Amino acid sequence: xxxxxxxxxxxxxxxxxxxxxxxxxxxxxxxxxxxxxxxxxxxxxxxxxxxxxxxxxxxxxxxxxxxxxxxxxxxxxxxxxxxxxxxxxxxxxxxxxxxxxxxxxxxxxxxxxxxxxxxxxxxxxxxxxxxxxxxxxxxxxxxxxxxxxxxxxxxxxxxxxxxxxxxxxxxxxxxxxxxxxxxxxxxxxxxxxxxxxxxxxxxxxxxxxxxxxxxxxxxxxxxxxxxxxxxxxxxxxxxxxxxxxxxxxxxxxxxxxxxxxxxxxxxxxxxxxxxxxxxx
Length: 280
Hints:
The chain is an alpha+beta fold and 280 residues long. Helices cover 39% and strands 26% of the residues.
C-alpha cells in the first residue's frame, strides 16, 4: 500500500493526464452513440416528472383555496335562501291573518314570535315588537283562532308574553250558549287542555260549548275565543271543566296585539274599600 501511494504521488501528473484523456475519449464516443441520447431522454423525463409533481402540488394548494372560496359562496347562498324562505313563510302567515274573513285585524299590532321558553308549567313567549311599536304591559295577545296570552314586560323592540299555558295565567271567561261564567287557568302538563273553575253545578253548561273571554277580565277585550268544553265532571258545588284550547301553541308564529283595555273607572270602583263596605 505504501508503494502504491509513493507511485501515485510520483506519477500523479501522468495519471491525471491519462484520466482526462479517458474522459475526453468517453465523451467523444458518447456523441456518436445512442447512450448520450438515452441519457438526455432520461434527463428530460426526470425533469418532466419533477415539474409534474410540482404542478400537482401547486394544484393542491389552489384546490384548497378554491374549496374555501366555494364554501364562502355556498354559505352566502344558503343564508340568502334561508332569508327568502323565512320571509315567504312570514308573509304567508301575515296574509292568512289579514285575509281571515271571520276576524278584523285593523287596529291591532302584528308581531312575530321569536323565542319561547318550553316548560310543563311556566311557558313564555317573546315577540319582536316593543314600546317603540306601541306595545304596552297588559295588552292582549291573540290570533284569529283565539287567545294567546297577555304582555307582562316590554323593552324597546321586544315584549314578553305570558301565554294561556302558564300556571300563573288566569282570565275570566263565559260560555257562548249557556252563558256560564268562570275563571280559566292551566294546571300544567298537556298544552292543549285548560280548566275552568267556579261554574256551579246548577248551571246548564254543555259539551262542545265555545268558551270566550268575558267582560269581567281586567286586561282582555271580551269575545276572544279560548276553546271548547270537552269534559264536565260534577263536584259538590262546582263542575270540573276541561277546555280544549283554540290556539295550537306548538305552531304559533305570527300574533296580534290588541289595544290596551283601559277602564280606570271600573278599576277604581272595584278597588275602593269604602264603596266595597257600602255594598257589603
